[in-house]
Amino acid sequence: MNITDLTGTVQLANGLQMPYLGLGVFLTKEGQEVVDSVTYALDAGYRHIDTAAIYQNEEGVGLAIDNHKTDRKDIFITTKVWNADQGYDSTLKAFDTSLRKLKTDYLDLYLIHWPVKGKYKETWRALEQLYADGRVKAIGVSNFLQHHLEDLFHSAKVLPMVNQVEFHPYLVQQPLLDFCRQHRIQYEAWSPLMQGKVFDVPLLKTLAEKYGVTVTQLVLRWDLQKDVVTIPKSVQQQRIIANAEVFNFNISAEDMADIDALDRRERIGPDPDNFNF
What we know:
The mean pLDDT is 98. The strands form two sheets. Strands 3-4-5-6-7-8-9-10 form an eight-stranded parallel sheet. Strands 1-2 form a two-stranded antiparallel sheet. Helix 1 crosses helix 2, helix 2 (58-67) packs across helix 3 and helix 3 (88-102) packs across helix 4. It has helices spanning 32-44, 58-67, 88-102, 120-132, 146-153, 174-182, 202-211, 215-225, 237-243, 253-260, and strands at 9-11, 17-19, 23-24, 48-50, 76-81, 107-112, 136-142, 162-166, 186-190, 229-230. The protein is built from ten helices and ten strands. The protein starts with 8 loop residues before the first strand and ends in a 17-residue tail after the last helix.
């Protein structure tokens, strides 16, 4: 990944350019809060917005994008099909619902939110159809481990272009990252700040001071230097702006390795092998 500035992108396996830093809106309230959050991000130069059907804020995201001066074609929109909607026909219907809420006639990226056993292959077949029809520019998965991906490979006509997973200094999953890189599946981080727990890690505080940045900026820069697309969430304008100020320093190889070594295989969110929703 060639890290330049907030307009920088990474090329997916099909050639599509995906901005490597974006705004996530998980737990951002529908209505004015999400409209403001997305507007702040677009005003600051972000061009990548990540939502999901289950977040129940697609309408606000769509409204903010529709009302902004930035052309739709210059904004990369991701959403995800929820578990209850998985299956071939139900996924196609869910996609149409998301498009309507987002006020757009296409998506840049559509993801399977979780690997629901017995359903994700049919769901993937629906995503392949949407991709073939040109209604989405790229398709991928979220929360898939290596064995889920390998299982999907057996029937897939198109391989996932993105895998969005929990990724932070306490959950690096380097073998999964390497596997995705080997198969040209772009790794993307959710919960990069460990829901605030990064601020309690002594090494991260020390390194942030060394580089003259915040802990948040250090961690987001670490993500990018690991070739991981990242979508930090905030509803505060100043934090959204500050989260993008990660392009004026470079973490040394030694310090990158020290951050990697914090890995505890510790999850903040559910286990993709053991979830019941």
